[in-house]
Specification:
Elements (H helix, E strand, L loop, with lengths): L2 H36 L2 H22 L2 H7 L6 H35 L4 H17 L1 H9 L3 H24 L4 H22 L10 H5 L2 H29 L1 H35 L4 H37 L8 H15 L4 H7 L3 H54 L4 H26 L5 H19 L1 H12 L4
Length: 481
């Protein structure tokens, strides 16, 4: 694909997915704030326990097919490949749904010693069902780089489910308001995908076409499982060892600290994986995008993290009340972890795009079982939630360093290039934190400190990037396909 065409598609994808972050994720985050204000930590903890199980099975059920189908070049077998994948996923989704009612829900409730998980998991099995059946139409829209439709569909599901969830929470339905939010969102997105996509499966199935994807999909699937375990092992350990209340507190801290970074990476991964796949033989072009994205992720993630580092107690008290104050210290530490993760760009997507998912697999396996799991367990056992948060910082650091080594190997990134890409974001973040700390020395009451110190710190940070902001607005204002 010509460089100009790739640039146009990347800008279009970033434009529509930026809209997604502001409109969709902003709405979703706002709803979580409202629900947290209404509900107790236990409600968040119970749903958090359930979603660990559901999300794990969602990763397993993908079978690596989404990434493999996106990465596979179009040929005369593409239509047969898509149809075969759909029928396979339909059978798989049906089996999973039945297994929940048969034994999965009971096993989950027994593991956490939380009886309420049985009906919650049974209900959320339909969330898993709809998500599995959305894989193929999502592949088709992603291959077309039709990010506009992907964003619009997700927004419809988010908006509708948010209204329903808030209404149920106000009416006193507690944990079920969160459960119904997941169900309404997934079912709405599922229906919207199939309405939008101009494709229907043929009544054909060929096992060989799926087996041809196995070499790529096996590594990506196992890597996705390891990535999931690494990112959720803290929830698993906390839920198992100390119960729903503490897990709810940690969930809030993690959600706040990671809200921008995780959604930003979701945007970039959706855009860059298919792009890296199309330009997989052009190392210089991949390197150029990688360095720009590294600077971009740091520039956007750092100010939010600095706000949480400097004003965690103020934020908790202002938005959630004293019942959530236990989340303040873990929030501050996890905000540092978010900054550590953000400074490495999107190395896993590069490795997938150039056809080397096995590298991510081995890195994630070592980091998950040798570093993350023992550190999080020991952190929780001896230092509580703060210990878990520090463990997350350490295993994020080791992971990013390992990925950087392979970026140097495969796309020839240098340490000097990384330093130049991150120099301004780091300087801006340090200055912003100093301004916030100075604002906290005043005798203003909590909400006023939050507003004044947060606003001044943010303004100082923005001034570092005024030229970048002008350039970004100019690019995104151009008409993109």
């Amino acid at each position: 694909m010509p460089a100009a065409s790739v640039k146009s598609r990347v800008l279009s994808g970033l434009k529509w997915n930026a809209i997604s972050t502001i409109a969709i994720r902003g709405t979703d985050f706002g709803v979580k704030l409202i629900l947290a204000r209404i509900l107790l930590p236990e409600a968040y903890g119970i749903v958090g326990m359930a979603m660990i199980i559901i999300s794990f099975l969602e990763v397993v059920s993908d079978m690596g097919l989404f990434n493999a189908l996106v990465q596979k070049k179009e040929d005369e077998f593409s239509e047969l490949r898509y149809s075969s994948a759909f029928w396979f996923l339909l059978v798989l989704a049906s089996i999973f749904a039945l297994c929940f009612y048969g034994f999965i829900s009971q096993l989950g409730a027994s593991f956490y010693n939380e009886p309420l998980l049985v009906p919650v998991l049974n209900a959320l099995s339909f969330y898993l069902f709809f998500n599995i059946l959305s894989i193929v139409p999502r592949v088709l829209l992603t291959r077309q780089l039709n990010f506009k439709s992907l964003v619009q569909i997700t927004f419809i599901g988010t908006a509708l489910s948010s209204v329903v969830a808030i209404a149920l929470a106000i009416a006193g339905y507690g944990v079920w308001s969160i459960v119904v939010k997941y169900l309404v969102s997934s079912s709405t997105i599922f229906l919207s995908y199939w309405i939008k996509v101009n494709w229907r499966p043929q009544f054909k199935f060929n096992w060989q076409t799926l087996r041809q994807l196995a070499g790529y999909s096996t590594y990506t699937q196992i890597n996705n499982i390891l990535f999931f375990v690494r990112n959720n092992i803290d929830y698993l350990v906390i839920g198992k060892l100390v119960g729903a209340h503490v897990l709810g507190v940690y969930t809030l801290a993690f959600t706040l600290s990671e809200v921008l970074r995780t959604q930003l990476y979701s945007i970039l991964n959706k855009v860059l994986f298919p792009v890296y796949s199309k330009i997989q033989d052009d190392t210089e072009q991949i390197k150029k995008y990688y360095l720009k994205i590294m600077r971009f992720t740091a520039m956007l993630t750092f100010p939010v993290s600095i706000i949480f580092i400097g004003l965690s107690e103020n934020i908790i008290l202002a938005f959630f009340g004293a019942k959530w104050l236990e989340a303040a210290d873990p929030l501050r530490i996890l905000a540092v972890a978010s900054m550590i993760f953000a400074i490495s760009g999107t190395p896993a997507e590069v490795l997938k795009g150039i056809g080397k998912p096995s590298v991510s697999f081995y890195l994630n396996m070592i980091n998950t079982f040798v570093i993350a799991l023992p550190l999080i367990y020991l952190g929780q056992k001896y230092f509580g939630l703060n210990g878990v948060a520090y463990a997350v910082c350490i295993h994020y650091t080791t992971s990013r360093l390992a990925f950087h080594y392979y970026m140097k190997k495969y796309i020839h990134i240098t340490d000097e290039e990384v330093f130049l890409a991150l120099r301004k974001p780091v300087m801006a973040a340090i200055t912003m934190l100093l301004v916030i700390e100075a604002g906290k020395l005043t005798s203003m009451e909590n909400n006023l400190v939050l507003i004044v110190a947060g606003s001044l710190g943010s303004l100082v940070y923005i001034l570092f990037f005024k030229d970048d902001i002008k350039y970004g607005i100019k690019l995104l204002s151009k008409k993109q396909n």
